[in-house]
Amino acid sequence: MIEFKQVSKKYPTGQLALYNINLTLEAGEMVFITGHSGAGKSTLLKLVAMLERPTKGDVLIGGRSLSKLGRSQVPNYRRRIGFIFQDPHLLYDRTVFDNIALPLRIAGMGQNETRRRVQAALDKVGLTGRESTFPLMLSAGEKQRVGIARAMVNKPTIILADEPTGNLDPELAQDIMFTFAQFNELGATVMIASHDHALVERMKKRTIVLQKVD
Ligand SMILES: Nc1ncnc2c1ncn2[C@@H]1O[C@H](COP(=O)(O)OP(=O)(O)OP(=O)(O)O)[C@@H](O)[C@H]1O
Ligand SMILES: [Mg+2]
Predict the structure, then answer these.
(1) Nearest CA to ligand 1 atom 27
(2) Could you state, in chain order, the average pLDDT of each consecutive group of 10 residues for the chain (214 residues)?
(3) pTM above 0.90?
(4) Which residue among 33, 112, 123, 149 is least crowded, i.e. fewest CB within 10 A of its CB?
(5) Which atom of ligand 1 lies nearest, measured to the CA of 15?
(6) Which PROSITE patterns does the UniProt entry name for this protein (predicted)?
(7) How far is the CA of 113 from the centre of ligand 2 (A)?
């Protein structure tokens, strides 16, 4: 369960990004976050990923406040989270396999288990057989799917996606959303920020609309 309790976020510039947000997501839920540019969608996701901290209020995961996590516990917490950005930020001098394996290598996983997990992730995003390809040879949709596979390979319990389909044509965008829905069916809690109203409506999930502050 993810809870926002009276959460406000003001950036050091003085910009208020979120004001008094109260929100509860059940474990295993999939929700969309919409709202105009600047409404705070990315900020909301960053608070869950602990890339930012609230200036007021509390974010709780499974009943535990993130503010109580010490610095040394943050990497461990982040390992439970898969974060997908609009631009997948792949390493262009590494193969698809190596890009996806990166989080596992950081976690110190052995070679056989790494290979098994990467293959499973490739299979889930429909890229089986492309492990030796370099990202430059991939289409935008394929690159995005490599980014998704890399975010999933650790089996995160929480998946955060910030405009994951922004650069893709409608058909690919729909495919990517169905991929998230599949991970959700396997038990992950999924939060997706998206501008694409038509696509969000088609997915028939709970939608949270953020209003821009001031
Ligand atoms: N690092 C930052 N420093 C200062 N202000 C920021 C920072 N990040 C975001 N903001 C401001 O906080 C507000 C919310 O930004 P945020 O990026 O969360 O909105 P968003 O809903 O994701 O917008 P978009 O749809 O354009 O991605 C905006 O006014 C933005 O300018
Ligand atoms: Mg944003």
Answers:
(1) 37
(2) 97 96 96 95 96 96 94 90 90 97 93 96 92 95 92 93 87 87 93 92 95 82
(3) yes
(4) 112
(5) 5
(6) ABC_TRANSPORTER_1, ABC_TRANSPORTER_2
(7) 35
Q: Across-strand partners of 34? A: 209
Ligand 2 center from residue 37 Cα (angstroms): 7
Residues 6+ apart with CB under 8 A from 183: 124, 152, 159, 190
Distance CA 17, CA 149 (A): 30
Pocket of ligand 1 (CB under 6 A): 11, 13, 15, 17, 35, 37-43
Query: Between helices 140-152 and 96-106, what is the axis angle to 10°?
Result: 20
Q: Which of 36, 61, 22, 34 shows the shortest CA–CA distance to 213?
A: 36
The residues near 134 (Cβ < 8 Å, ≥ 6 apart) are 92, 93, 94, 95, 96
Q: Which two tokens stand for residue 129?
A: 């057989």
* Ligand 1 centroid distance, CA of 195 (Å): 14
Helix and strand numbers (H, E) in the chain are 7, 9
